[in-house]
Write a structure and sequence with these properties.
This protein has about 220 residues and is an alpha+beta fold. It has one domain (about 20-220): Electron Transport, Fmn-binding Protein, Chain A (Pnp Oxidase, Chain A), CATH 2.30.110.10. About 15% of the residues lie in helices and about 30% in strands. It has helices at about 60-70, 80-85, 100, 110-115, 215-220, and strands spanning about 20-25, 25-30, 35-40, 45, 50-55, 70-75, 90, 105, 120, 130, 135-145, 155-165, 185-190, 190-195. The radius of gyration is 19 Å and the shape is globular.
Length: about 220
């Protein structure tokens, strides 16, 4: 007896991008002149207190991270979509690289002002946090990994040193847990902004106590 269905429900396609949906990150870094840069990106995921960030190798943010080894990962809520969109097609690179210029990018020296957001000092790194973002994570670069054969993309492995949250997304009665019903991240899916809907099904994985996921990076951060 065959395990395969008679009619394949899939159709083979070749999409130009594979952005099926990830949280938007406003990544703050420091320019050479000591001013902050703020760049929206969404190629990001986390493992414990480490994150992987995918950036174009020619991007100003990539240059800043390689030079300073520091950044802040600011996570906007879906209510901040308009502010995030004000940063679309902007770059902190001057002059603007030819490829970005052709794509419509323009140089903006003060990204915080452009977005209408507020810079607030970090505790362990030089780049500022975004006050309006419900989550901000101070981080340092641990490694840089080339992606692909053309050198155009880099994956930055970052280690989180501080996590800051707005009180309204903290789970009631806890000191170190986020309430997923209160946290509404801004999601980028195929170049468009979305929010999250309500929980669709209980998760068996949630039966595992969160503290069992604590790793050495968290203890390392406590020592700073």
């Amino acid at each position: 007896m065959s395990i395969f269905v008679d009619a394949d429900p899939h159709a083979r396609i070749e999409p130009n991008i594979l952005y099926f949906g990830t949280p938007v990150v406003l990544l703050s870094s420091m320019n050479e002149d000591g001013t902050p840069n703020l760049a929206p990106m969404s190629s990001a995921f986390w493992l414990g207190w480490r994150g992987m960030l995918g950036l174009g190798s020619r991007a100003k943010t990539a240059h800043n991270l390689i030079r300073t080894r520091e950044c802040v990962l600011n996570l906007p809520s879906d209510a901040l979509a308009t502010a995030v969109d004000r940063l679309a097609l902007t770059t902190g690179a001057h002059p603007v690289p030819d490829r970005k210029w052709e794509g419509g990018y323009r140089y903006v020296p003060d990204k915080f002002q452009r977005a209408g957001l507020t810079a607030t000092p970090s505790e362990t790194v030089a780049p500022p946090r975004v006050a309006e973002c419900p989550v901000s994570m101070e981080a340092v670069v641990e490694a840089v990994h080339p992606v692909g054969d053309d050198g155009g993309t880099l994956a930055f492995e970052v280690r989180v040193q501080r996590v800051w949250v707005h009180e309204e997304i903290r789970m009631a009665g806890t000191v170190d847990r986020i309430d997923p019903d209160a946290w509404r991240p801004l999601i980028m899916s195929f170049q468009k902004f979305y929010g999250l809907g309500a929980q669709v099904h209980p998760s068996t994985l949630a039966s595992i106590p969160e503290h069992l996921y604590r790793g050495k990076d968290l203890e390392r951060a406590r020592a700073l």
